[in-house]
Specification:
With 451 residues, this protein is of the alpha+beta class. Among the domains are: 221 residues, Bira Bifunctional Protein, Domain 2 (BirA Bifunctional Protein, domain 2, 2-Layer Sandwich), CATH 3.30.930.10; 93 residues, Anticodon-binding domain (Rossmann fold, 3-Layer(aba) Sandwich). Helices cover 30% and strands 27% of the residues. It is built from 13 helices and 23 strands. The protein has a 7-stranded mixed beta sheet. The chain has a 5-stranded mixed beta sheet with strand order 20-19-21-22-23, with helices on both faces. Helix 2 packs across helix 9. The protein is globular and about 75 Å long.
């Protein structure tokens, strides 16, 4: 797949734009256009429905208890001291002092970075490269709360959504009367001042996470770790990532964070890399986070079991997915070029559940009462689905426009509709056309789009 073609299509069709483009843009920041915002929203809604409202049965067939949160982006700075981000959330950085370059790169990713100077392929490969010694660079964005801009007002944009869940553990427990095991889920923005954002939207400075913190008894934590690892892998395949590009990988001991008992990276082989890149991490975090916040805040974050009379700090299993990264993977997986008859067509083969536009409605011609019937059908479907009405140009061209948008079904009102109240439905992937009764279109479309 040609990544440049995908990027061009995303801009042309309104999936993704460079942020602040009319002012030259800002590296590491992206805007989602009319189709892109629908695609990303469908991804987030599918995750919320499948993981929060209706998660799969547990490893012993039990019902999973799950609730949601929406935490503030700016939190008390002490949160980041307790979590370790204030002191340890850093990457090694090097600068190039060569005239005409003045680049800044991550020291541990030099071979994957692009050097502005030619014929060098990567920083340090050109005989004129003058790289500084590596130094640490904290990735959190700083800001100030209140009228003064001094150390007393210093705060940070959150680099992850997880800590908002941990510091609200006791609030959720007391207000909802949940019993362990249970999970708390959140979808929200996070910010990391990446040294070298790259690869389109994959590594950005502003991004969105879909995270679960699942609290369980320490003796059962490995069972729940395996459960969430398998559930999350299966979810991606159910939503269209069925190729061999999806590659779960268990981290080696040398890769694990100091608090991690085990971590599985769910990776995808993007066109811009020779190696699979992380879509999601499923981590067994042990009792590290609650213990840290208990020590730093002085608040009791233990759990008391009324039945066993046992008090303990729960272990945590964390499936943490990137909404933007999965959106990019969906775009890459869906992009297809194929020959139909004597011409090439570009089609986005989105899973119908994720497709930005669920169906398009066309009148074959703008006369003989066809537009009125088409408009009525459009208004009926619009109450339930995101649908598109198009009466401009030849039907073949309208089909091609919807192929590029990834619309799975198109309905055409034609001469036969006037005779027997049926419509033509055209399938995006198979190109097969058949007749449906006009009165049954909404019900049949609902069935096709149901999870």
């Amino acid at each position: 797949m040609d990544m440049e073609k995908l990027v061009a299509l995303c801009r042309r069709r309104g999936f993704i734009f460079q942020s602040s483009e009319i002012y030259g843009g800002l590296n590491g920041f992206w805007d989602y256009g009319p189709l892109g915002v629908e695609l990303k929203r469908n991804i987030k809604e599918a995750w919320w429905q499948d993981m929060v409202r209706n998660p799969p049965p547990g490893p012993d067939g039990q019902e999973i208890s799950m609730v949601g949160l929406d935490c503030a982006i700016i939190m008390n700075p002490k949160v980041w001291v307790a979590s370790g981000h204030a002191s340890g959330f850093a990457d090694p950085m090097v600068d190039c002092k060569t005239e005409g370059c003045k680049g800044r790169f991550r020291a541990d990713q030099l071979t994957a970075s692009v050097c502005p100077l030619k014929p060098s392929k990567a920083p340090g490969q050109y005989d004129k490269c003058q790289l500084t010694e590596p130094r640490t660079f904290n990735l959190m964005f700083k800001t100030f709360v209140g009228a003064l801009e001094d150390d007393s007002a210093l705060a940070y944009l959150r680099p992850e959504t997880a800590q908002g869940i941990f510091v609200n553990f006791k609030n959720v427990l007391d207000s909802s009367r949940l019993k362990i095991p249970f999970g708390i889920a959140q979808i929200g923005k996070a910010f990391r001042n990446e040294i070298n954002p790259r690869n389109y939207t994959f590594r950005s400075r502003e991004f969105e996470q879909m995270e679960i913190e699942f609290f369980c008894h320490p003796n059962e934590s490995m069972k729940w770790y395996r459960y969430w690892r398998d559930v999350r892998i299966q979810w991606y395949t159910q939503l269209g990532i069925k190729s061999d590009k999806l590659r779960p990988r268990e981290q080696g001991k040398e890769e694990l964070a100091h608090y991690s008992i085990g971590t599985t990276d769910i990776e995808y082989l993007f066109p811009f890399s020779d190696e699979p890149q992380e879509l999601e991490g499923v981590a067994h975090r042990g009792a590290f986070d609650l213990t840290q916040h208990q020590q730093h805040s002085g608040k009791d974050l233990t759990y008391f079991d009324d039945q066993t009379r046992e008090r303990y700090v729960p272990h945590v299993i964390e499936p943490s997915a990137g909404a933007d990264r999965f959106t990019l993977a969906v775009l890459c997986e869906a992009y297809t070029e194929e020959k139909v008859g004597d011409e090439m067509r570009t089609v986005m083969r989105f899973h119908p559940r994720l497709a930005p536009i669920k169906a398009a409605v066309f009148p074959l011609v703008n006369k003989d009462g066809m537009p009125e019937i088409a408009q009525k059908l459009y208004r009926e479907l619009k109450r339930e689905f995101n649908v598109f009405y198009d009466d401009k140009g030849a039907v073949g061209r309208r089909y091609r426009r919807q192929d590029e948008a990834g619309t799975p079904y198109c309905f055409t009102i034609d001469g036969q509709t006037l005779q027997d109240n049926t419509v033509t439905i055209r399938d995006r992937d198979t190109l097969k056309q058949e007749r449906w009764p006009l009165a049954e279109v909404a019900a049949r479309l609902r069935a096709l789009l149901s999870p």
